[in-house]
Design a protein that fits this description.
Blueprint: E1 2-8, E2 19-22, E3 29-30, E4 36-37, H1 39-43, E5 52-59, E6 71-74, E7 83-87, E8 90-97, H2 99-105, E9 106-110
Parallel strand pairs: 1-7
Antiparallel strand pairs: 2-5, 2-8, 3-4, 5-6, 6-9, 7-8
């Protein structure tokens, strides 16, 4: 995680075709056959790479098919390293979705949090 030490007074204004997401799913995962896939292998070594769900926190105005608060399924490798920022006095961990990643990496959109995210301790307010 990168701590930029940046304080943003109100909200992030995104450039065209960009987004910031939160609550991306990380952690160990168990296959139906009982095999445990460790998070380090999924994240750093590229093995067991898979798409992941994340919640849209900020988006560019020109993105009309996705709303803030939607959950998006992102193809592996189409998000940045997490960034720790202070927004309106609250510390937030966000991931950046670039224009290329928005166009090529977003696979699905859901208005509701997918049920399987609860096993990672993710909750939707």
């Amino acid at each position: 995680m990168i701590d930029f030490g940046i304080e943003i007074p109100e909200k992030i204004e995104c450039l065209p075709n960009t987004m910031y997401v939160e609550k991306i799913e990380y952690g160990e995962r168990k296959t139906k056959g009982g095999l445990v896939l460790m998070k380090e292998q999924m994240d750093y070594e590229g093995r067991f790479a898979r798409p992941r769900w994340a919640k849209v926190r900020y988006k560019a105005e020109n993105i009309t098919n996705i709303e803030v608060g939607d959950w998006i399924l992102i193809n592996h490798g189409h998000w940045s390293t997490s960034m720790l920022m202070e927004i309106k006095g609250k510390e937030e961990k966000l991931w950046y979705i670039s224009p290329k990643s928005y166009k090529e990496g977003v696979m699905a959109v859901s208005k509701e949090m997918p049920e399987q995210l609860k096993e990672y301790g993710i909750e939707d307010e």
